[in-house]
Amino acid sequence: MDTVDPAQADGPALPVTRSDEEWRADLSPLEYHVLRESGTEAPWSGEYVSTKTPGTYSCRACGTALFRSDAKFDSHCGWPSFFTPLAGDRVTEILDTSHGMRRIEVRCASCGSHLGHVFEGEGYDTPTDLRYCINSVCLTLDPE
Asked: Most CB within 10 Å of its CB: which of 90, 100, 119, 133?
């Protein structure tokens, strides 16, 4: 899994750029906290934890399509889990050493919003060895 060094995470300008005031005006306080401040919603509280509806999950901040429902699986972790993004260029993976842990943060490649984390080597029976653990509040489901 390729990752970006945190010092290089800002890199080139992202396609969707907005001021902090614009993000605050368009997002609820919880959405803003998770998407723009890298927060986390409480486990089992999100609307998409158990959803089985076929469709596409998009970034709630900018609308970029990120995950398909056929890549969603039950990991029993309290957040929606996917084994792969819609396309590799839809998300950015960044080394996260906050809270005394070593994890890989997942951000929307279009707007830079925090989505969650990706883990590997957990032994789930999926086509990849990855679990994209994504906050429901970061997603919007577009049903088929």
From this structure: 133
Tell me which CATH homologous superfamily contains domain 16-143: Peptide methionine sulfoxide reductase. (2.170.150.20)
Could you tell me which residues come within 8 angstroms of residue 66 by beta carbon, excluding any fewer than 6 positions away?
57, 58, 59, 85, 86, 90, 91, 108, 115, 134, 139
Q: Looking at the annotation, which residues are catalytic? A: 133
Q: Where are the beta strands (DSSP E) in the chain?
A: 55-59, 65-68, 72-73, 81-82, 91-96, 103-108, 114-120, 130-134, 139-143
Residue spans per domain, the chain: 16-143
Taking the model in full, what pTM does it have?
0.87
Tens of pLDDT, residues 20-59: 999 999 999 999 999 999 999 999 999 999 999 999 999 9
